[in-house]
Design a protein that fits this description.
Alpha-Beta Plaits, 15% strand
Length: 556
């Protein structure tokens, strides 16, 4: 009996000592990131069968090992929210840069307003070379800002790509370390050292889940298998690393393409390849529509040097948009004008009555019918029509036709809204209407230097909803839309980061309630194990005294 009691006390001493040491490790791990609270797995030893008595005696207790207190479901929930939070947080510096690119006080929006104002200023004083030079400076400034904005987007894309590369490298480092842990786990099964490796493994998996949306499977021994987009990256000690470059995208070392959908790596990859690409396309669309719309008008106008048909701007997109002229006199502010060489009729002539009714008042009597071509566009007419009706029909052929009452002559002015050559041509296919209108022998010439109509039309065109990707915004609106979209992206990610961080924090707190160390609770456990140790020591002492007494009695 005394001998059995001594064995029981001895096992309790060993068990209590191990639990005291474990409690000490738990207390040391209070502030250690990733540390999981551990508890001893204690079981009864025995029972032993007595030879002389029909009952079973226990032989004490033993510590079979140490287990971590961990909830796999809470780990999964935390990693989901951590992945979303990391995706949003990682974009903060990039979206901040994006917003600043388009919300610069000296950027595209303000310079677009300056160009419009300068066009109207030169339209009012078309022969002022100094104002023309100022207009060229503003046009050049806007072009350079388009270039700078495009370059800034390219630099931001390169930065995002570099971040994807860095994140890929970090993911590979984690996978290599997980591979090493997988190799070490089997020999350490059941030992206290295994829990250290498992804690490190879970810290790595937490970090990896923030990088990319991996799927994790754990074997019975604790070894980890990692999958991404259905492709196996890690299985036991077999590892297929990630590879990344901007041309081929993300793939495994074995060459399998990957399409991650979560985590900071996926967020940066999407930002570089999709989000920024959308902004670059919209910027190019705005720059190209700006160039094309102004060029279509500028080619129809004349500069102070009397030359027409020149482009104002050149380039294939925002990145190389530039002025196509270098002389302010070449800015085509004037449009072609043709004035009749003679009056249509005498002082009794009126434009509202038919030609046949005013035959006596016409300088040249009209044929009964005929066809006149304006810039190659045929216009039919007959003597039953009034001059006003005929001029209205001519105005649909690329010119603005009007009767100048003081001079009694017909004046044609080029309408830049109709495609065609910059000058005005008039021919009679049949009949003699050009003679009746006094246009035979009239010369198309630029209305310089005092004509600024084309510049005024350019300024008006900037207000027309023909710009941007959809061709339904004014030029200013297409520019402002870029700034609005950049601000919306920034706000979206800030809101998402705040929301996801709250969810992440809540999930971590719930996880820590299970696996974290509570100092007060551990101190109570320490006191309990110390009392157990003291009680076991007392039992051992009593058993020893009994044994000594029995031995001494037997010696007598």
């Amino acid at each position: 009996m005394a001998l059995n009691s001594l064995n029981i006390a001895s096992s309790l001493l060993r068990s209590s000592q191990l639990q005291i040491e474990l409690t000490g490790r738990n207390l040391e791990g209070v502030d250690l990131p990733g540390y999981s609270r551990q508890r001893a797995v204690v079981s009864n030893v025995g029972p032993a069968i007595s030879t002389f008595q029909q009952h079973h005696d226990g032989l004490g207790v033993q510590v079979e090992g140490f287990e971590r207190v961990r909830d796999g479901l809470l780990d999964t929930a935390y990693r989901l929210h951590h992945r979303n939070a990391e995706a949003s947080r990682s974009l903060d510096p990039l979206t901040s840069r994006l917003e600043s690119i388009f919300n610069n006080s000296d950027g595209l929006s303000s310079q677009a307003q300056d160009v419009r104002a300068a066009l109207l200023e030169v339209a009012t004083h078309p022969d002022d070379v100094a104002l023309r030079s100022d207009l060229m400076t503003k046009l050049d400034g806007l072009s350079r800002t388009f270039q700078d904005t495009s370059n800034s987007l390219n630099q931001l894309r390169d930065e995002a790509n570099a971040r994807v590369g860095d994140l890929t490298d970090r993911a590979n480092q984690i996978l290599v370390e997980l591979q090493g842990i997988n190799k070490q786990l089997p020999p350490l099964d059941g030992s206290a050292g295994k829990n250290v490796l498992l804690d490190r493994r879970d810290v790595l998996l937490d970090e990896l889940s923030g990088l990319v949306d991996v799927q994790v499977r754990e074997s019975h021994g604790g070894a980890t298998s990692v999958y991404l987009d259905g492709k196996q990256l890690l299985y036991g000690d077999q590892l297929d690393k990630l590879q990344w470059d901007a041309q081929n995208g993300l793939r495994t070392q074995a060459g399998q393409s990957l399409n991650p959908r979560g985590g900071s790596l996926a967020a940066n990859l999407n930002f570089a390849q999709t989000e920024l690409a959308g902004f670059r396309d919209a910027l190019d669309a705005s720059a190209n529509s700006y160039k094309d719309e102004l060029n279509s008008l500028h080619r129809l106008g004349y500069g102070l040097d009397g030359v027409a048909g020149r482009d104002l701007l050149q380039g294939t997109g925002a990145g190389d948009l530039a002025l196509a002229i270098n002389d302010p006199r070449a800015i085509a502010g004037a449009l072609a004008r043709m004035e009749g060489t003679s009056g249509v009729g005498n002082s009794s002539f009126t434009t509202g009555d038919s030609l046949v009714s005013q035959a006596a008042n016409l300088t040249t009597p009209a044929a009964s019918s005929g066809t006149i071509e304006i810039n190659g566009v045929a216009v039919n007419c007959d003597e039953s029509q009034s001059t006003d009706q005929i001029l209205s029909n001519l105005s649909a052929a690329g010119v603005t036709a009007r009767f100048d009452k003081p001079s009694g002559r017909v004046v044609l002015e080029r309408d830049p809204s109709v495609a065609g050559p910059p000058d005005i041509t008039v021919n009679d296919s049949s009949g003699n209407l050009s003679q009746v209108l006094g246009l035979t022998g009239a010369v198309s010439q630029p209305a310089v230097p005092g004509d600024g109509r084309n510049l005024r039309l350019m300024a008006s065109k900037l207000d027309t909803p023909v710009f941007g990707s959809g061709g339904d915004r004014s030029f200013q609106e297409s520019i402002d839309d870029l700034a609005t979209s950049a601000g919306a992206v920034r706000n979206r990610d800030q809101v998402a980061a705040q929301r996801n961080t709250l969810l992440e924090t809540d999930a971590d707190e719930r996880r820590q309630q299970i696996s974290g160390v509570n100092s007060d609770e551990e101190l109570l456990n320490l006191q309990r194990y110390q009392q157990s140790f003291a009680a076991a020591a007392r039992v051992a002492t009593v058993a020893d005294e009994i044994m000594s007494t029995l031995i001494s009695m037997g010696a007598r």
